[in-house]
Amino acid sequence: MVDVSRVQKELTECNRDREVSGVSIALHDGANISHLTGTIAGPADSPYEGGTFVIDIRLPGGYPFEPPKMQFVTKVWHPNISSQNGAICLDILKDQWSPALTLKTALLSLQALLSSPAPDDPQDAVVAQQYLRDYPTFAATAHYWTEAFAKSASTGMEEKVQKLVEMGFPEDLVRSTLKSVDGDENMALEKLCSG
Question: How many beta carbons lie within 10 A of that of residue 117, not counting itself?
Fold first, then answer.
């Protein structure tokens, strides 16, 4: 069973200095304390600078004695993050987790990972090879993906999702419909209503 009071305390602590730390956490659907959404500001002086990256966080029943399950929702070009599904290769989310760590420290570690990739222990071998063999192309691709997927348009996407979900449409359907119409809220609403 998730330790609810600890998680609530962690949320408060994490969000208290989000302007300084660049990380924040919210309840994913407003109710379930074991499903959260984290956000990370792209680190300065990296190809991810200026981006806002959304992380899906699921807390197992054994949290904090088991690590949180985290994956990037925002597409990101990085050796330690799958470009296909957002899976993350980071030791503290696996065997190096400790109950002394918090969700905030995990998000800060992800932010640090964006600054300092570990291409020798990759999650995405293609990206890792590019990082090692052709860094300028890697940096340009990572920057392009940040512009395309992690800038204000994608932040606006979360607001569009929220609006349509509040209208009573299921979130999965809303996300797939918005994706199919390149984020056009009016076209998505038309499709949802006619579907």
Answer: 20
| pLDDT 10s digits, 109-168 | 999 999 999 999 899 999 999 999 999 999 999 999 998 899 865 556 777 788 888 888
Query: Which of the following is catalytic: 89, 107, 142, 150?
Result: 89
Instruction: Return the amino acid letter for 170.
Output: P
pTM here?
0.77
Reading the block at residue 85, the tokens are: 């599904």
14 classed as catalytic: no
* Total Cβ atoms within 10 A of residue 145: 19
Helix 125-133 and helix 135-149, axial crossing angle in degrees, nearest 10: 130
Residue 177 identity (one-letter amino acid): T
